[in-house]
Design brief:
Elements: H1 9-27, E1 32-33, H2 35-42, H3 46-54, E2 66-67, H4 68-78, E3 85-90, H5 94-101, H6 104-107, E4 110-117, E5 126-127, E6 130-134, H7 138-144, E7 149-152, H8 156-169, E8 173-176, E9 189-192, H9 195-220
Helix pairs in contact: 1-4, 2-3, 7-8
């Protein structure tokens, strides 16, 4: 059997953005769009858009462009968003509660089945009608309920141990919000989400913009 070509992470990370803009076009009743029109809307070059989509077969027709509904459905299927995923959240603190209350996930097929916590004061309570359970029962729960994704919202000291338990229980993917890079076996998908890194990047870009503005002012003098 011929191996599928490996798609770069950069391309994969652009696909959700394509899908989000296509959804907006659907809301506006747009039926088709050219790569040049899509480029003006989304900010990537038309060449980049065509190159990205050609990794999966192209989907466009010369002289016609892209059918918005068809392309939206194709990208949804590529991302695996044509099915439902069951998630558990580990850590019922502020971040865990915020994620459990974020109903957008439910609308897009990501359903939080349970929340796990070590703090006895939080165990037994409900967040957005989701029960907070004792962390000690997580392996059994994940195994019995065929959970797809574990969302780690713990301290960095606990994150790797939590990941190890989830992997042992047969989890397919981990979304890690703890401020540390965790390690998982090769058969488990992993996204390490560093909120502070994103904030620091924002600070960098703001200061670069300030520097450029000052340079422009200096040149005018």
């Amino acid at each position: 059997m011929k191996d599928k070509p490996k798609i770069s992470n950069a391309v994969i990370k652009r696909l959700p953005r394509y899908r989000r803009y296509l959804k907006e076009l659907q809301r506006k009743g747009v039926d088709k769009i050219s790569s040049n029109e899509f480029s003006a809307l989304i900010g990537y070059t038309a060449s980049q858009i065509r190159q990205d989509l050609n990794n999966f077969g192209g989907f466009g027709q010369q002289g016609y462009g892209y059918n918005v509904d068809a392309l939206y459905n194709e990208i949804s299927a590529i991302l695996g968003l044509d099915r439902e995923y069951k998630m558990v959240i580990i850590g019922a603190g502020n971040l865990g509660q915020a994620l459990a209350n974020h109903t957008y996930y439910y609308k897009t097929g990501f359903v939080v089945s349970a929340i796990f916590e070590v703090n006895p004061k939080l165990i037994g309570m409900s967040i957005n009608d989701i029960k907070v359970m004792d962390y000690e029962s997580i392996v059994e729960y994940v195994e019995d309920n065929a959970i797809d994704i574990g969302v780690i919202c713990t301290t960095k000291e606990s994150a790797q141990e939590v990941a190890d338990k989830l992997c042992f229980a047969g989890i397919r993917g981990i979304w890690n919000f703890a401020p540390i890079d965790i390690e998982v076996p090769g058969h488990v998908a992993l996204e390490n989400m560093h909120l502070t890194d994103s904030l620091h990047s924002l600070a960098y870009h703001m200061n670069r913009m300030d520097d450029n503005s000052q340079d422009s002012v200096s040149k005018k003098k």
